[in-house]
Design a protein that fits this description.
By secondary structure, this protein is an alpha+beta fold. The protein contains seven helices and seven strands, in the order βαααββααβαβαββ. It is globular and about 50 Å long.
């Protein structure tokens, strides 16, 4: 007999997770991958492979979100050393179902951001301005929208550069 309780948890991402999530990705997350000139499956796979650490979130047994952080030094070797030292590139791609477990997601995302900051003093990436829910969530997590790019990567879409700097106390 089922208790009717829905399970919600985050665990270490596994190799097959990008392929599982690719076909179910939300529209805004698809857009944010495609502005880099790759298809969704390739974008998820590269995000997973290039991450120093990667997590997968599950809701009622379904993979609904992947979260990771990669090193700017590893991802962008051509960037001058002083600009990439200690910089992590955080990312989140999901189905949108994580809104069904909002409280759990918000609580765990704070913990994951803290873990990312343990690895990198600076976290920095881009988010589509029109992805209002993601922008709101990033601000709630303490990220700042530091610059606007009106034609990001030649896509005709406006993106923010977002950033969080670890406060060493």
């Amino acid at each position: 007999m089922s208790s009717g309780k829905v399970t919600q948890y985050i665990d270490r991402a596994e190799r097959d997770h990008p392929a599982i999530l690719a076909g179910r990705l939300g529209a805004m997350d698809k857009l944010e991958i495609e502005v880099y000139g790759v298809d969704v499956a390739t974008g998820l796979e590269l995000s997973y492979k290039m991450s120093e650490k990667c997590w997968s979130g599950f809701y009622d047994g379904r993979l609904i979100v992947m979260i990771g952080v990669g090193s700017m030094a590893r991802l962008y070797p051509g960037v001058p050393e002083g600009e990439k030292a200690g910089v992590g590139i955080p990312w989140l791609l999901g189905t949108g179902e994580y809104r069904s477990c909002r409280k759990t997601f918000l609580r765990l995302s704070k913990v994951i951001k803290w873990e990312m900051h343990e690895m990198f003093p600076v976290l920095r990436n881009f988010v589509a301005v029109e992805n209002r829910q993601a922008v709101h969530w990033l601000k709630w997590l303490g990220f700042n929208m530091v610059q606007t790019y009106p034609d990001f990567n030649g896509s005709g879409r406006e993106f923010y550069l977002f950033e969080s700097i670890r406060k060493d106390e």
